[in-house]
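Molecular record:
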Amino acid sequence: MARMSDLRVLDLSESVAGAYCARLLATAGAQVALIEPTSGLSLRSRPPLLSASQPRRSAAFEYLSAWKHGAALDWSTEAGFDALGRLLDAADVVVTSLPADQALDFDRRARAGRPQLIHISATSYGLTGPWAGWRSSDLTDWAAGGYLYLTGDPQREPLQGAGPWASYVAGVTAAVGAMAALWSRRSGGRGQLVDVGAMEAMASSHQWSLVMWSHQGRIKHRAANRHAEAHHPVSLMQVRDGWVCIAAPTLAQWTNLCIALDLPEMAPDPRYATAGLRFDAAEEIDARFAPFLMARTRTEVVEHLQSHHVPASAVLSMDEVLEDEQLQARAYWAYPDLSDGGARMPGISFDLPSSPSTFRAAPELGSDTASVLAAAGFGADEIAALAEAGVVTLGGPHE
């Protein structure tokens, strides 16, 4: 593989993590074929739905499957697996989200005789260990990696972060694993199994929570909208028309912040000399900052602090994010056909020369089956026979 456009990926996953991994590869320029069961993926029905009249038109599916080609193939039968095998012959990467025992069996069969094939397995707990094969959900993924314990008000129960963040972290990790395996293949000529677990992906995303315990014997705790134990201000602060996020963890940023807020005497005060001391005095600091902040709008505060080299941002509502000038300037949003029940969606989250220049909407069930099979060497008669036998579905609208 010399170019991203030469990379052939089969997405057999049924999870958000696997689907996001494949989406990242597609938006980097790879040719990704989504291989669904002939009855369609369960992701097609994952809430929220774009329309109550279309129970299988999921916003999540439309997002996760954009820029992919779509084929419907029942590979649970011998004939279906034989057909899948021919697709695997032409593939560089295959992405799955099978349970551990099934994933290992699939890996043995899929990579037998295909030394170049890279198999990305995206699950919650990985393919080995005592938890391999356990059932999971967005909430349990958040909990198992330690983040549920750290999120929320310290006087209340732990909270999950909004959305399936753990799945997206695992998806990013899987995409990185895919690229690392491809790089390894360039020098060694062989593919490999890339075993990605959301629990490990989340655990590896901690900053100092783990070393606090291993080196100091302290357990990090919830601190609501503050950055527990470590720094202040790294938090949300109220202003006249809403909230801003101010992050001034270093001594230089603290000094600049005090000067910006017309409180230069606070900068050398020994009570605030270190990040930890400032966290302990957070209530007092916030009270002294409040008059300046509450007299100004978000825009005024952010522009003023940025001019003093203090990291700050307005806390935007979702409608403000959709209209934000920075994202508009970056041409970030993708625009499916609104007349067909689509909606504005996040586009490509990086700028690469190899990325697709035009938007490709999520495929309808089986819409590209014939072309995906033909690209793998199937003749028209073979494709017709597979369709007649119910092994594949050729085209058709969302059901």
The longest helix spans residues 165-188.
